[in-house]
Design a protein that fits this description.
With 65 residues, the protein is an all-alpha fold. The chain has one domain. It has two helices and no strands. Helix 1 crosses helix 2. The radius of gyration is 15 Å and the shape is elongated. The two termini are 15 Å apart.
């Protein structure tokens, strides 16, 4: 398997844990539950992708692998 796959497995719980601290209730209007969930999902997927690629690029540039 690819090294990036294992990075995704490592970063996904880390990002989800970090996103627990975000309070998005005051951003959305009342009773807009689906908009908040979709926003939270897109934000989570974006952060997982960016964090994984950042770590992968750091390892590639340092020539550890």
């Amino acid at each position: 398997m690819s090294a990036k796959f294992f990075l995704y497995l490592f970063t996904t719980p880390l990002v989800i844990w970090a996103m627990d601290s975000i309070n998005i209730n005051h951003i959305f209007k009342k009773n807009r539950i689906w908009q908040a969930r979709i926003f939270y999902t897109i934000l989570g997927l974006s952060l997982i992708y960016l964090f994984t690629n950042f770590i992968y690029d750091v390892f590639l540039s340092s020539k550890i692998f």
